[in-house]
Amino acid sequence: MTADLAAALRDEARRANQRRLLVFAGAHDACRSAAREALAGAGIDATATTEVTARESESLGHERVAPKNADALLGTTRECVVLDCHDECRPNALGRAVGAVDGGGLFVLLTPPLDDWPDRRDGFDDTLAVTPFEADGVTGNFRARLVETLRAHRGIAIVDVDTETVERDGCTDPSPRPPRTTPSVPADSEFPRAAYEACLTAGQADCLGAFERLRTPGNALVVEADRGRGKSSAAGLAAGAFAAAGQRVLVTAPGFESAGAVFERARELLGSLDALAESDCDDRPRRIDAASGGRIRFEPPSTAVESAAAADLVVVDEAAALPVDLLGGFLDAPAVAFVTTVHGYEGAGRGFSVRFRDRLDDSALDVAEARLDEPIRYAAGDPVEVWAFRALCLDARPPVDPLVADATPETVTYERLESAGLLANKHRLREAFGLLIAAHYRTEPNDLARLLDAPNVSVHVLLHRDHVVSVALLAREGGLPADRRRAVYEGSRIKGHLLPDVLTSQLRDEEAGVAVGQRVLRIATHDAARSRGLGSHLLDSVRERIETDWFGVGYGATPELVDFWWRNGFSTVYLATTRNERSGEHSVLMVDPLTDDGRALHDRHAQWFVERVGGTLSDSLRDLDPDVVRAVLAGAAVTADHDCSPYEWRVVASAAHGPGLAKTHPHVFRRLALAHLTDPESTALSAREERLLVMRVLQSRPASAIADELGYDSARECLRGLGDAYEPLIERYGDEAARAERARYVD
Q: Residue 488 and residue 502: Cα distance in Å, rounded?
């Protein structure tokens, strides 16, 4: 039975150049036996099969991948992928596994009995069961949704191995395989003919042709497509053509595995052209050397942005998975291609297009677009793709603009969405999750399960005419027992409690986990209704209805975001000394205290932050953007101490007004700089003067470099500007000794 069913599905998949999904539900050993029989019946060789499983057992294929490492499948194709969900059903692994199956192949899912599956608890549930909750507090709604979609969508066969019955055979009687469009070589092509001959569709060849414009500096290209359309392969062929011509190509992506197809296609093209350097070898996968002297190399985003200007071409693969501020750093490259997925866990094309395209279009680069619609891995209409998009909400969308375009705080209503209600109301779920996908580069399928199942997470929305216009996800943190607080203080980590964990382990506060808080995981407002106070209105609505000691938030610091949270009552308690490798930003933690216990936690950490930040700015944060520094310090709830002795005031005043030298007493000048930058009532300096204080006084950067960046005529002029900047600070904070010293030179 199993072998015949698998053979029929495989035959249909091959004829249609699509994929089919085969579910074996029941006892684990019986599911594995059935899968082994199915692979043999379908004629799929073990070398073309990968099993994704949490169990250390003999693999059904030539390799075994743990679910948490399923990103290893990115950029690869298999005739069959077997995903074992008995020990854990990890949504990210599901998305990555199904994406690796080639046209004509099978995706095999091993599950517990479908009727019982939502009520069972597994390893992924353990990751959602954040202290003080246990796994039995996880709802199982995501799996209930998964079962419903498996039973409703075409191209999915379901076998109950316990009763040996076929619930669905999955056959669709597909139309004959449609012919692929035929690629051609443009008559005026500058790229090698072999590059176009390697294209599989006319759309891919057209996309490759669009890359040719990047041979001229000052150009940018945006390539958008759904998964499986060959966009990364087109980028790889273009990179190989550039390298063959002696050009330097810099490739970046959220991870090297995301750019695997780029390097594979580039190496294949250079090999076909006999253009690989003799020193090039496969054991150095992150760099390809061409005989011409050209080179293709990979760097993670946080470092690639620093070296982009030195490359001839920068390829940013899966660009939608990177934050907008980091993407903006690549606009200084001579030529740049942004390659992005429209739908998928890698990132949301809409968020990229809405948030970043305006900055790109306003840049000095001449921007062109290319889009690939025709699938390459499988034929159009593939039922497994349709199922995966729906099951994982990869195709979720916010409401269309006209439905919420006139939303204001006066027209909206607040609602807390319970997980059971979200499961039942698919329309509401798609709008809320679609809004998160559009707004946040890090939203992924695991977040869908977290939204539906996690007992510590709550969902809050503003509705305009019954459509979601703003959404926030909050997570309960803190309230930790003494033994857990002690363990974290002594070096253990605790999942799901970001603020207590950092404040305890890094800032050495063993009592940081006592108070109970709510951390804002995500907040998003529809782009058609932004800048009207809806995000602030949502935070106020939540604050009025949730009893907690504090609100908190952690994110990659940008001046705009810090200002938003500061205006909403949050203040700085922590600034990371290292950059996040993915975002390239320094994380900041901010807290809004709501009770006496929350106030005690906030006040001591706000004070400690101001006391230590001067030392980190002159050391590990020396290169941090001065506008980020200004924003983070302005977001502090404590004004730094500006008290000086009479002698110190004479030193400062003589340096500002007379022959004194700031470098003889740098600590005094740092103290005054911090006092001004943390003083909410001080408006004594311009933004340029504040940047000068940050860069010269707090970060100790060379005056010549500061002069170049801030537009001073020389290093001497820069230092003269520094003296001028201290004059109003002396006026604001100085004592009688400062005024007397000033009078010697001014009056």
A: 9
Distances (CA, A) of 243 to 232, 267, 297: 16, 10, 10
Contact 315, 339 (CB under 8 A): yes
The CA distance from 293 to 362, in Å, is 34
Strand 165-169 and strand 156-160: the pairing is antiparallel
pLDDT at 550: 98
pLDDT tens digits for 314-342?
999 988 778 777 888 999 999 999 998 76
Distance CA 505, CA 141 (A): 34
Q: Which CATH superfamily is domain 401-619 in?
A: Gcn5-related N-acetyltransferase (GNAT) (3.40.630.30)
Query: What is 2-169's CATH number?
Result: 3.40.50.11040
Name the amino acid, one letter, at 150: L
The CA distance from 526 to 199, in Å, is: 38
Question: 375 near 500, Cβ under 8 Å?
Answer: no
| Measured distance CA(221)–CA(366) in Å, rounded | 8
Res 176: pLDDT: 65
Strands, E assignment, 535-628: 550-556, 571-579, 586-593
DSSP 114: T
Each residue's pLDDT tens digit, 243-272: 999 999 999 988 887 788 899 999 999 999
Higher pLDDT, 600 or 59: 600
Distance CA 164, CA 162 (A): 6
Vertex 529 angle, CA 528 and 530, to 5°:
105
Phi-psi region of 305 (alpha: psi -120 to 50; beta: other; left: phi over 0): alpha
Report residue 45 CA to chain centroid gap: 36
User: Rounded to whole angstroms, how far apart are CA atoms 295 and 316?
Assistant: 16
Which residues are bridge partners to 335 per DSSP? 219
Amino acid residing at 491: G
Contact 163, 173 (CB under 8 A): no
Secondary structure letter of residue 318 according to DSSP: T
Instruction: Give residue-wise pLDDT tens across range 631-661.
Output: 999 999 999 999 989 998 988 888 888 787 7
Strand, helix or coil at 103?
strand
pLDDT band at residue 351 using 50, 70 and 90 as cut-offs: low
**Do 313 and 247 contact (CB within 8 A), yes or no?**
yes
Average pLDDT of the chain to the nearest whole number: 91
Tens of pLDDT, residue by residue over 398-422, are: 999 999 999 999 999 999 999 999 9
What are the domain boundaries of the chain? 2-169, 193-372, 401-619, 646-745
The residue among 662, 98, 618 whose CA lies nearest residue 384 is 98
What whole-number distance in Å separates Cα of residue 386 and Cα of residue 231?
20
How far apart are the C-alpha atoms of 430 and 315, rounded to whole Å?
Answer: 32
609 residue type, one letter:
F
Q: Residues 581-590: what's their mean pLDDT?
A: 83
Task: Report, as an integer, the average pLDDT of 66-80.
Answer: 85
pLDDT at 349: 43
Domains 2-169 and 193-372 share a fold: yes
Residue 482: count other Cβ atoms within 10 Å of its Cβ.
11
* Collapsed DSSP state (helix, strand, coil) of residue 491: coil
- Stretch (H or E) spanning 409: none
Positive or negative: CA dihedral 151, 155, 160, 163: positive
The owner of tokens 């990869």 is 394
Task: Write down the pLDDT at residue 347.
Answer: 44
How far, CA to CA in Å, does 515 sit from each of 518, 522, 531, 600?
A: 10, 22, 33, 9
Confidence (pLDDT) at 653: 86
Fold of 193-372: Rossmann fold (3.40.50)
Which letter does DSSP use for residue 322 in this model? S
DSSP bridge pairs for 552: 519, 591
Instruction: Give Cα 543 to chain centroid, integer Å.
Output: 27
pLDDT digits (tens, 9 = 90+) for 115-158: 999 999 999 999 999 999 999 999 999 999 999 999 999 999 99
